[in-house]
Amino acid sequence: MRFRTPFRTPFRTPGRLTRRALLVVFLLLVCTGSWYGYRAYNDTSCGEGAHEESSPHECVGVTDGGMSFDPVLDQVSARIKAENDRVTKAGAPYATIALMVPMYFAHRTAPVDRKHLLWEVQGAYFAQYRANHKANGRAPAIRMVLANPGLGGGHWRTVADQLADMAASPEHRLRAVFGFDISLPTTKRSIDYLTNAKHIPVVGGALTADDIANTPQHPHAYEGLVRVNPSNTDQAAALAHADHGVGVRQTVLVEDARTDDNYITSLRKVFEARTAGASLAPEQFRSPLDISTEGTTSNDFRQIVPNICQSPAKEIYFAGRPVQLRQFLNELGKRGCRDRSYTVITGPAANALPLDAELDWDTLRHGVTLEFTASSHPDAWTGPNAPATGGSAESFRTLKELTNRQVTGPIGPVDLTDSRVIITYDSASTAIEGIRDEAVQGHTVPSTDEVRNAWLRLHGTHRVEGASGWICLDNQGNPYDKAVAVVRLDPTTHTGRFVTLSWPTGRPPNGSCTAPRTSTS
Questions:
Q1: 57-230+380-479 has which CATH code?
Q2: N or C end of the chain: smaller count of CB under 10 Å?
C-alpha cells in the first residue's frame, strides 16, 4: 500500500518558495521605486526654490513666478515671472522684495481665501509694475518673489531662512519682506525672526493686531518692522469718532474667549474698553483653532441672542473671526425680538463676509446693520466729500489705472471693493520707497540696514502717498492718524458700501503728516 502524505514533496518546496519570494521582492522594488519617483516628481513639480510638504500636501518656499502655488495665481505668477526676467536681463542694478503670505488652503472656505490671495498678489504686482514702468526711471529696478510659508504659516521658519539666504546673496539682493495678512502666532514669530534674528526689513500688510508692532513702551520689539494698516486700537478709535450717538448702556460685547489669536485678543481688548459700563457682561463663545472651521459655535449664538433681546442693547460689538461673525448674524436674523433693530460693529476681517455663501442676507434686510472698518474703499477718496488731506483721488486712480489688463497684462479678475489689493499695493510701495530712498544717486542697491534706516524718514513731506491714504510713519514704524474707512454691508448689492472716512484722532492729519511727540499710535 502506498502512503499518501497531505504535504507536498520536499524537493518541490524550494522552487515554489523561490518564485514567490522573487515576486514579493519584485513588487516591493516596484512600489518603492514608484514612491520615490512620485516624491521626485512632486518635488520637481514644486519648481525651483520650493519643496513639497506632505502634511498637508503642499509646495512651500520661494518662487520668482516660475511656478504657481495655486491655480488661481497662474496668470499673475506668469506676469511676475515675465517682469522679473525683464529686470534681470536689462543688466541694471535691481533689488528684490518678497511677498510672504500663506498661499495654500485646504478647508471649506478655500474659495474665499483664494480670492483674497489672488487680490494680494495682484496688489503686489501692481506696485512692482508701477515701480519699474511709471516711476520716471528711479532705481534700482524691483524684482519680486512670492514666499509661501504654508497653511497657517506652519512652515514659516524654513521659508524665513530661505529669505535670509537671499538677503545675503549678491544675485538676489533681497531687501524687504512685506505682506503678512493675518494676525496669528505664526505671523508674530515670522516677523520676530526676520527682523530681530535676521535683520531684514519687514512691512506689514493687512495686519491689525496691536501686539505685532513696536510701541513707545517697547520701541525695539521688532527691529525694522513698519506697518501700513492702522491697529485695532486705532480703528476702534476711528469708529468711536464715527459714533451713532448710542450710549454705552445700550451696547453689548459678543467676544471670542480664545487667547491664541492675535487679531481676536487685540479686538476684544479695545471693544471691552469701548463697552465698559454696558448693562450686560460680555457674552462669550470659544471658536475652533482653525479659523475657518464651523465648529459648534452656532449653538452658542443661539443661546446668546435671546439674552441680547432682553437687554437694552442697540449696538453689538463683535470680537471674532468671519466664520463666527456669519454664524452670529444668521442667528440674530432668527431672533424672537424681530421688532428691535441692531447695529453690529466689528473689525476689518468682516471684509470676507460678502464672499461667504452661507451668509443669510435676509438678516441684513430685517433690522440688522453690519458696519466694520476697512483699510480702504474705492469710494473713499473719489467721492464729493473726500477730505483735502490724508490721501488723494490721484493716488487711488494711479492704482486703478494699473488694473487695466491692457497696461499690466492678464492677471485674473480684480476687485478693489475688498481692500486686499489696495493694502498689499501700499505695503509693497512702502517697501520700494524705503529701498529707493537709500540708493546712492539712484544707482546702487542699499543694504538691509540702510533700508531699515529709511523707515525713520517716511513721514512729513516724505510720506508714502498710498492708495488707501497717506502713510506717515511715526518713530515706532506705525502709520500715524491713518484714514479708516467705515463700510456697511449692503444686502442689495452683496458688497461693502462706503459710509465715511474716520480718523483715530478724530480729524485728518495736517499738511505736515508728522506724529506729535506725545503720539502713542
A1: 3.40.50.2300
A2: N
